[in-house]
Design a protein that fits this description.
The structure holds 3 protein chains of 3 kinds.
Chain A (H helix, E strand, L loop, with lengths): L9 E2 L2 E2 L17 E10 L2 E11 L4 E5 L6 H8 L7 E6 L2 E2 L5 H7 L1 E3 L12 H8 L8 H6 L1 H21 L15 H14 L4 E5 L7 H16 L3 E5 L3 H7 L2 E6 L2 E6 L1 H6 L1 H9 L1
Parallel strand pairs in A: 5-10, 5-11, 8-9, 9-10
Antiparallel strand pairs in A: 1-2, 3-4, 3-6, 6-7, 11-12
Helix pairs in contact in A: 3-6, 5-6
Chain B lengths: L1 H31 L6 H17 L4 H29 L4 H23 L4 E2 L7 E4 L2 E4 H23 L1 H11 L1 H6 L4 H27 L1 E2 L3 H16 L4 H21 L5 H15 L17
Antiparallel strand pairs in B: 1-4, 2-3
Chain C lengths: L2 H29 L7 H16 L23 H21 L5 H21 L1 H4 L22 H27 L1 H11 L1 H6 L4 H27 L9 H14 L4 H17 L11 H22 L33
Helix pairs in contact in C: 1-6, 1-7, 1-9, 1-10, 1-11, 2-3, 2-9, 3-9, 10-11, 10-12
The chains are: A alpha/beta, B mainly alpha, C mainly alpha.
Chain lengths: 280, 295, 338
């Protein structure tokens, strides 16, 4: 039973409002990501059990649930870091047959990490440049040909990186080592770095974890900007207030399965969801 | 077939000797989280100190004990004066291996400076040969095996039944928690280094006895075997090291018999590579998984 | 003291060690762990160049009736190229072992064991590469032609050749390390998971680097063997490995000039410089021991006082590659930082 946002569904007595939201003129098109009967088993544990859903374009879909619900595992499967034991993931209509993190990234799915996703020993600018794929200077021949070959592209990337950093007030940290930044700054650099790749789908793993309020607000604003520009995102989060503000569509997981979908208000209104969340 | 069993018998003796040092190495790692690579040279030094004593007429058995004690004490000093300060500085685990190798070189070549690079032997009465079915062992081998077995039992008793042993195991599992429970970490650490050092020292002399003739280069030879046994059995797991030593010991002797004696060391190598490729955390559950050593 | 001979010896040893150390540093730069088995690449290169110059074991070139498994008589520079190919392949194989995500110290010890066991294999199987005796009477490249008839003249020629090769390698290394490829390698070292998430095939990158590093090590061995005309297990024991990474540790990893400084200190000053000291008690073996003890002490000191090396890895200030625009402080930024 696929949970499709276009149709109201009833899960354990809870009703979902029909989804009619569009954001800033971007038409709601075919699902950019479709997960079907996904299951993950390892070592006798089943972190993900029969999960199916599709994700709408140009929106931020929230993924919440108590600890151990399988949210991160699910995200890892979509990102290609974990191999599913059952089911499939289809991106833009095409099944992902041989998942590996780098192959999935090249399809246009980028992700951030919950902990230490940055390259500590590289400068902020270098972190940003690592976000850009298909660089001429990254092949052996290209590297040997020298700056004359890859210099122009590099300069363009640096300019773009600077602009992004300027938007978030971090341009003065350009040449600082990423490890010397504060936690919140590092998180932002990681998100900006993900943007450098112009991803079609951005996976955010607890972007607000351990971030202070003002920085969190800044991140929210930036994510909203991305959404307005048409980027699709899936966000795993525990900060329910942020999820409420950012996501019109939220999936709830518990014990490996999706137990509900809707807006935060609807979900909060359901007693079953609340109980499942607390019981975990 | 009887030759195979006979070789297995030799293998068990070798295993006993290897086990001494391998258990020390792995316990050391379990409790302090440091791979002490310098153990190869400490082992050599112990063998040569016993040799020096033996030459002045001391019985090899007393010399063995003396060498064991010496290595135990120097190990504690080594930790206090070198490893711990580096650790406090924030040196990475890999950095400590580099430090260990530097120490290995210093100790090994100091030994060579004193005793030269030539082969030496101990003076002792090898004793009569015992025949038990196809097994053929001389008195010395039996005594060594007895020492090894006795030491293993003692270690087992220490770890399982004494309060101190439990403190050691607690520290191995979680040093911070152990400390907050009132366990004196420095004391446990010192004791661990002493024990590991003593085992290495005994093992070194035992090696010297089984080899017949040895030189300062024995350290690097046995480093491989010890590491192979420890890793094979599950690094950080004392019983694993014993099991690993058994496998390596028997494999070495059987290879020596069935292929050629020159290839006996290669057996240890192949075992090690196979283990690392197939199951890097070793046979028995050691600490590899939760120390993030092998994923 | 034949200064000419001494000078050429120092130059050749320092430059070949530098080439090898750069190869080692290349591997280190992408894994964060020094490949303690590196010396086997140098040995492989030396042996390959040797058997490709000595000719078939049953042929006329093998005057001393040495045993080895195969050979050919190839003109320069083919033996060197052959050596680099073998080094590259060996590097790939070792790289496969290194692909397993092992903790740094665990991996280091494993590599150490690999190098010790390679030594045993060569020592045990005499038919393979002549066992402990090694190979000798290996002809030097370009000896029979021209005016070069050996002696100091040839020595200077060979030093010059070595330096030229060293400069070329240095140039190639510089291009690699300062390029986006070099940056990707450093990223893999810093955070492999994140590098994968950014679309980089980290396994392929590591294998590439191991192959390249292996080639460089092999080239170093090939050049050395052309000068020494002999190669045996005594030349590539465990302690010799250590000298190479002493050069990297003391000089500064991730930094071409740093490694050069380290190579000069270790191989120039300590190894060759000790020849200047009066023989202590007339015992040259004791002097050799002192060399190693000094090297060990130097490592300890270096790790203690300056763990990042004499010349540490440079911070890449990429911002200088574009014209500095007006830097907006807080400006229209979505975030304000106190």
């Amino acid at each position: 039973m696929a949970l499709d946002p276009a149709q109201p569904t009833s899960v354990a007595g809870f009703r979902q409002r029909p989804d009619a939201v569009e954001s800033s003129g971007v038409p709601a098109g075919p699902p950019i990501l479709e997960v079907a009967a996904l299951g993950v088993t390892f070592g006798g544990v089943r972190p993900v059990v029969d999960v199916s859903f599709s994700v709408k374009r140009a929106a931020i879909t929230g993924l919440i649930g108590p600890n151990g619900a399988g949210k991160s595992t699910l995200l890892n499967v979509i990102a290609g870091a974990v191999r599913p034991s059952a089911g499939s993931v289809a991106f833009e209509g095409k099944r992902i047959t041989r998942p590996s993190a780098h192959a999935v990234a090249r399809l246009g799915i980028t992700r951030t990490f919950q902990l230490s996703g940055e390259f500590g020993g590289l400068t902020v600018l270098e972190n940003m440049l690592m976000g850009a794929r298909a660089q001429r200077g990254e092949s052996v021949i290209g590297a040997l040909l020298g700056r004359r070959y890859w210099g122009a592209q590099e300069r363009a990337l640096i300019t773009r990186a600077k602009e992004l950093l300027e938007e978030c007030g971090l341009v003065s940290k350009l040449d600082d080592y990423a490890r010397d930044l504060s936690g919140g700054q590092r998180r932002i650099v990681e998100i900006l770095r993900a943007t450098m790749a112009d991803p079609k789908l951005l996976l955010l793993d607890e972007p607000f974890a351990g971030i202070n309020k003002s920085t969190a607000r800044g991140i929210e604003t930036y994510l909203a900007t991305l959404r307005a520009r048409g980027m699709t995102m899936i966000m795993v989060e525990h900060e329910l207030a942020s999820v409420d503000r950012m996501c019109e569509d939220v999936l709830v997981m518990a014990r490996g399965s999706v137990i509900g979908r809707g807006t935060m208000r609807d979900l909060r209104g359901s007693r079953d969801i609340r109980q499942a969340y607390l019981a975990g | 077939m009887s030759l195979v069993i006979e070789a297995a018998g030799f293998g068990v003796v070798t295993a006993g000797v290897v086990a001494l040092a391998a258990v020390g190495f792995t316990l050391q790692f379990a409790i302090t989280n440091i791979f002490n690579v310098a153990v190869g040279s400490q082992l050599t030094l112990a063998a040569f100190i016993a040799y020096a004593l033996n030459r002045t007429g001391v019985s090899i058995w007393y010399a063995m004990i003396a060498a064991g004690l010496f290595t135990g004490v120097t190990s504690v000093l080594l930790n206090r004066m070198i490893f711990q300060p580096f650790l406090r500085r924030g040196t990475s685990f890999f950095g400590l291996v580099v430090v260990g190798i530097a120490l290995l070189l210093i100790i090994q070549f100091s030994s060579q400076a004193i005793w030269g690079a030539s082969f030496v032997s101990y003076q002792f009465n090898a004793g009569g040969v015992f025949k038990w079915g196809p097994l053929l062992l001389n008195r010395t081998s039996l005594i060594l095996l007895g020492i090894a077995a006795g030491t293993m039992v003692a270690v087992h008793l220490l770890l399982t039944y004494t309060r101190f042993g439990k403190s050691m195991r607690a520290t191995a599992a979680d040093p911070e928690l152990a400390s907050s429970c009132g366990i004196r970490i420095q004391l446990v650490t010192d004791a661990t280094w002493f024990l590991a050092g003593m085992l290495s020292g005994l093992g070194g002399v035992a090696f010297g006895m089984t080899l017949g003739a040895f030189s300062v280069s024995m350290g690097s030879t046995f480093l491989v075997i010890i590491v192979a046994a420890a890793i094979l059995g599950g690094v950080g797991q004392a019983y694993g090291a014993m099991l690993g030593a058994l496998v390596v010991g028997i494999a070495t002797e059987e290879t020596s018999l069935l292929v050629s004696s020159a290839y006996s060391q290669v057996a240890a190598f192949i075992i090690l590579i196979l283990v690392l490729v197939v199951r890097p955390e070793g046979i028995l559950p050691g600490v590899a998984r939760y120390r993030g050593i092998a994923t | 003291m034949n200064w000419g001979f001494f000078a050429t010896t120092v130059i050749i040893y320092v430059v070949t060690s530098l080439i090898a150390a750069w190869g080692l540093d290349l591997q280190f730069g992408s894994t964060g762990v020094l490949n303690f088995s590196f010396i086997i690449f140098v040995a492989a290169g030396a042996y390959t160049a040797a058997i490709l110059t000595l000719g078939s074991p049953s042929g006329p070139g093998n005057v001393a009736q040495q045993q080895y498994f195969a050979g050919a008589t190839l003109p320069f520079p083919l033996p060197w190229i052959g050596a680099m190919v073998v080094g590259g392949i060996l590097g790939l194989l070792v790289g496969l072992v290194a692909l397993k995500r092992l903790r740094g110290d665990y991996e280091a010890i494993v590599m150490l064991v690999v190098s010790l066991m390679a030594l045993y294999i060569v020592l045990s199987d005499v038919g393979f590469l002549n066992g402990a005796s090694g190979l000798a009477l290996i002809p030097s490249p370009l000896q029979s032609g021209g005016n070069l008839t050996g002696g100091t003249g040839y020595g200077w020629f060979y030093s010059g050749l070595t330096v030229v090769v060293g400069v070329i390698v240095g140039f190639v290394m510089h291009r690699l390390m300062e390029s986006p490829l070099g940056r990707a390698l450093r990223a893999v070292r810093e955070n492999e998971r994140a590098a994968e998430a950014m679309g980089r095939n980290t396994a392929a990158l590591r294998l590439l680097v191991f192959a390249l590093g292996g080639s460089l090590g092999a080239l170093s061995g090939a050049i050395l063997v052309g000068f020494i005309n002999a190669w045996s297990p005594g030349a590539w024991g465990f302690a010799e490995t250590f000298l190479l990474f002493a050069a990297v540790i003391v000089g500064g990893q991730g930094n071409l000039v740093g490694v050069a400084v380290g190579a000069f200190i270790i191989f120039g000053l300590i190894i060759q410089g000790v020849l200047f000291l009066p023989q202590i008690g007339g015992d040259s073996a004791l002097t050799e021991c002192l060399q190693w003890i000094t090297a060990g002490l130097l490592i300890l000191l270096s790790m203690w006082l300056r763990p990042q090396g004499i010349i540490p890895e440079r911070r890449r200030r990429l911002s200088r590659w574009i014209a500095p625009a007006r830097r907006k402080r807080n400006g229209s930024g979505l975030l304000r930082w106190r």
